Structure formats: C-alpha cells, structure tokens
Amino acid sequence: MKAYKGYTLIELVIVIIVMAVLSMTFATFIIKAVDSWIFVKTRDSAFGSARYSMNRMLVDMRRMTSPYGITVMTSTECSFEAFDSTGGVVYIDFKQSGANLYRNNDILAENLLNPGGLSFLYLNENGVSTSEAVGVRSVRVKVSIEKNNQLITLESAARLRNL
C-alpha cells in the first residue's frame, strides 16, 4: 500500500469553514469598533462646533456698548453694537439662515437644527424675560447642532458688562 501525503476534500472544506467563522467573528468586532469611533468623532466635532460658536457669541455680547446698542432682539436674531479690540464700535448680527449660524455675513457654525437651532432670551436685572432693549441686562443663548442624527444642545448666558 502506498502512503499518500495530502489532504482530503473534506478536511479542506472543514478548514475553510472554520476560517470563515473566525474571520466573520473578527470582522464583526472590527466593524463595531470603527462604528464606535465614527460615532464619537462625529459627536466631538458637533460639540466642538457648538462650543466655539457659543463662546464667540457670548464674548461678543459681553462687549456690547449698552442696551441702547441692541438694534434687533428677537428669539432667532440678535444685532447690536459692540466695542472692538481698539475701543471702536462695530456692528454684530447673529442669526440662523437655513442650517447655518451667521455672524454678520460669515458662517460661524453649520448643521444647526432647522428650525430652532438658535434662540435668544433677553432678561432684565431680575432675570425676567423682557422685550425692551433698555431693560436688557443679560442674554441667554441656546445653540442646537444636529450632525449624523446626533443632537448637541448648549445653553449659556452673557451678562452685559458696559452698563
């Protein structure tokens, strides 16, 4: 009898099936890890954009010349005069148009919730909502950004300094 060295068809098929099962298990693990990374990266990007735009609006609002400098004060738009770095007066307008947040004509943030991605609430010295520019002492700002079905909402307030 001759001794044949090699593998039978059944042995090869079993090895292929075992390798396929191991590969699928490993691939599932890798896919879950990549999906988690994408989720965290998207959330971080949306949060960074919301935080940057919120900080920019609050800094500008704190530099407001006076409540008399407020020219537009609606729940979706805020326009006012503020001091620049040299002490001069500049006009600043924050508003939402579509899914973009604008500071004057420049896009400050994208992917805002539409509608309702930007809202302002004007408060008097007692913290009560007011509709008169003269009585405004602080402005509460809310920014909501939606990116890849992830919603980030930040809310803060700026107390006017130059009163």
Characterize the structure shown.
With 163 residues, this protein is an alpha+beta fold. The protein has one domain. 33% of the residues lie in helices and 33% in strands. The chain has one helix and eight strands, in the order αββββββββ. The chain has one helix at 9-62, and strands at residues 70-73, 77-83, 89-97, 100-103, 106-109, 118-123, 138-147, 150-159. The chain has a five-stranded antiparallel beta sheet with strand order 1-2-3-4-5, with helices on one face. A hairpin with a 2-residue loop joins strand 4 and strand 5 (106-109). It is rod-shaped, with a radius of gyration of 28 Å. The mean pLDDT is 86. InterPro entries: N_methyl_site (IPR012902), Pilin-like (IPR045584). It comes from candidate division WOR-1 bacterium RIFOXYB2_FULL_37_13. This is Prepilin-type N-terminal cleavage/methylation domain-containing protein. Keywords: Membrane, Transmembrane, Transmembrane helix. The chain crosses the membrane at residues 12-34.
